[in-house]
Amino acid sequence: GSVSTGTETPVETAPTPTQPVTPSVSDPTLQEAVYWMHDNGMTRFSSVELYRPFDTLQRQEAAKIFTLFRNTIIEWTPTDTNTSCAFDDLSIADQTLVSYIKQACKLQILKWSNNLFNPEWLLTKPQAIAILIRMLEWPQSETGANRWQVYYDKAVNMGMIEPSQPESFDKPISRYEIAK
Asked: What is the Cα–Cα distance from 169 to 167, expressed in whole angstroms?
């Protein structure tokens, strides 16, 4: 608009910032995801409440979920299947999950060091993203001090995550985030 023509220009208002969504056990998307995971053997829990969506996820639990996800969804075979999966710490693992730990090792989707799998350690968001990308686009370079950066960048480019500071991203992942 213009003063000289006597027309008014509509005033644009700034968009209202969206508030972060607070996860809820009644979220229908979460409910559907947990039911799907249960139906495909990735969890023994048939309800969101029993699934404990707001707890963090241990590496041994992730081994089961990702191995079965890979077997259910992704047609992929690693190039090197001669990986040694003899871990010195499987005696502390949940014995119902040991076979999944070994499968995740053979599939090369969960990494380890010094013959330790560390089954009770918490899985971090960068580790979860690396696992997914390993299954989708194997192999990636995993050398250097900031080896997660290649996975972070790829996840942003694939639309898996929103761009943010990678340093603030290295936190344990919740069971909620894995299900969704």
From this structure: 5
DSSP string, 66-122: HHHHHHHH-----S--------TTGGGS-TTTHHHHHHHHHTT-S--BTTB--TTSB
pLDDT digit string (tens) for 27-77?
Answer: 899 999 999 999 999 999 999 999 999 999 999 999 999 999 988 887 666
Separation CA 41–CA 37 (nearest Å):
6
Using CA atoms, how far apart are residues 169 and 124, in angstroms rounded to an integer?
Answer: 9
Spatial neighbors of 167 by CB under 8 A, at least 6 apart, are: none
Residue 140 DSSP code = -
